[in-house]
Amino acid sequence: MKHVTQLKADTLTTAQMEDRIRQVSVDIRRYREVEASAELAEFMALKPIVEAKEFQDYKNELLNTKYKDREEYKLITGYERAKRSHHVRWYHFYRGLKKVQDYMHFTETSDFAKLKDPEAVKADPRLKQMQRLGNSFAVKRYLVHKNSEQVSEYYRLRDIVNNTEFRTRNHFWKNPKRWYTTLQSQQDGKYEALKNSSNISFFLSQDPKKIAEYESYEEIFADACQWNRMQDSKWKAGFYYGNAKLKTNHSYANEGAAMNDGRNVYSKDGRIIVAVKAEHASAPAWDEKKGFIMKDYDYTGDIIQTAEKFRAGEGMFQVKASFTGKAHGAICLVSEKHLPIVRLAEWDGQNVTVGATYDKFEEQTTVEGLKEGQEYVFTCIITPADITWYVNNQEVARTANKLDTTLFPAVIAFLREGEKATGQVGIDWFKVYKH
Length: 435
Prior knowledge:
Layout: E1 2-6, H1 14-35, H2 38-50, H3 53-64, H4 71-83, H5 86-95, H6 98-106, H7 118-123, H8 125-134, H9 137-146, H10 149-161, H11 164-174, H12 183-195, H13 198-205, H14 208-215, E2 218-223, E3 236-237, E4 251-252, E5 258-259, E6 265-268, E7 271-287, E8 291-305, E9 315-325, E10 328-334, E11 341-347, E12 352-357, E13 362-368, E14 376-382, E15 386-391, E16 394-400, E17 408-414, E18 423-434
Parallel strand pairs: 1-13, 4-7, 5-8
Antiparallel strand pairs: 2-18, 3-8, 6-7, 7-8, 7-18, 8-17, 9-14, 9-18, 10-11, 10-17, 11-12, 12-13, 14-15, 15-16
Helix pairs in contact: 1-13, 2-12, 4-10, 5-9
C-alpha cells in the first residue's frame, strides 16, 4: 500500500531535534540526581504537612482573619467599655474614700455582727461610728455600684483579660503579621522556597513515566561517523548473505550503477558519504536469468552494511542524514535473505519514502516537504506489535510488525536501470537503542 504525508510546518528543525535528544540525556541525569538529593527529601517531607487541609485552613485563618472579628478583641473592648461605665467609675470613686474603706474593712471583722445588737452599739463608740458610716450616702452609693451588673461584668472581664494565657493569645491575634511568627510559616516558607527552586521546579515538571520510558532505551549501537578507513568502522562494503561462498561485492544487471566495493564511501566534514559517481566501470553483475555476467556501467554506486558487527530485531533505529542529487539513496534495515527490508529513508531524487517491503506486500509512505541537501533525523521504532517512522519529531507512518527476523543497517547509493544521475547519502551519526 502506498501513502503520502506532508512534513508539517511545526515539526522541529533538525537542530531542535538534536537539542531535544541531548536534553533527554541531561534531563534523565538531572532528574535522578535531584531524586536522590537531601533537598527533595526535605521538600517531600514538608509536602504532606503544608498541603494538608488543616494546615491551609490555619494559614488562611491567620492571614485573613481581622483582629476586630476575634473573640479576644471583643473581650478587650468589652472590658474597656465596662471600665468606663457609670457604675464602675463611681464604684472606683467611692471605693477610694477612706470612710468607705474603713467601713468595708470593718465588715470583714467579727465585730460587724454586733451592729445588729442595739445595746452593744449604744455601749461602744466605735460601733456607733461604723453604724453611721454604714448609713452614710457614700457607703450606700458604693454598695449600689458594687452590686451592679456593670461592676460584676467588669470584674468578670478583668479576670479574663488579665489571664496570662489570654494575654498571650490576644497579643498573637493583635499582631497583623501573626502568621509569620509561627512554626507553620517557617515550614510554609521553606516549602515554597524549595518548590520554586530550579531543581525542584524541574523535578516536578517532569513526567516520571516518561523519564522511566527514556531510561528503558539502552544504546546498543552507535557510530559518530568520524572514521576515515572502512576497517576502522563497524561497517563493511558489499552485500551480505550469511554464506561465505556467495559473492558480496557485485552489482545488479537491472540497475544503472556498479557497486564499487567501498571506493565510493568516504569521510567529509565529519560525515560519511556514500555516493553515485559518473565514471565508467566494468563489474560482475547478477542477472536473474543468466547468473553473474560482466557488465559495463557509466556510473558507480556503493553499499555498506553492519551484518557482521551488529543486527537487531527490535529497538529504536535513529540516523541523522541528508540526500543530494538525483541518484537514489537509501538507509535501510535488511536481512541476509534480502527480504524483508525496512526503509528508514529512501531518496528517489525528489522525495523521501519510508516503509517496509515483505515477500508479498509492501507498506510505503512518501514524505513530501523534505529538502534536498538538508539533514534530518530519521527514526524507526520497531516493537513486537508495530513499526513506526518519524522525521525529526513528526510521526509519518505506522504499520503492524510482520518482520519475524533480525535486521542490520545498510546504506546504499544506486541508480535504477536507464537512469543517469549522480548523488550522495550523507550520514552524520547512526544510533540504535534497545527498549
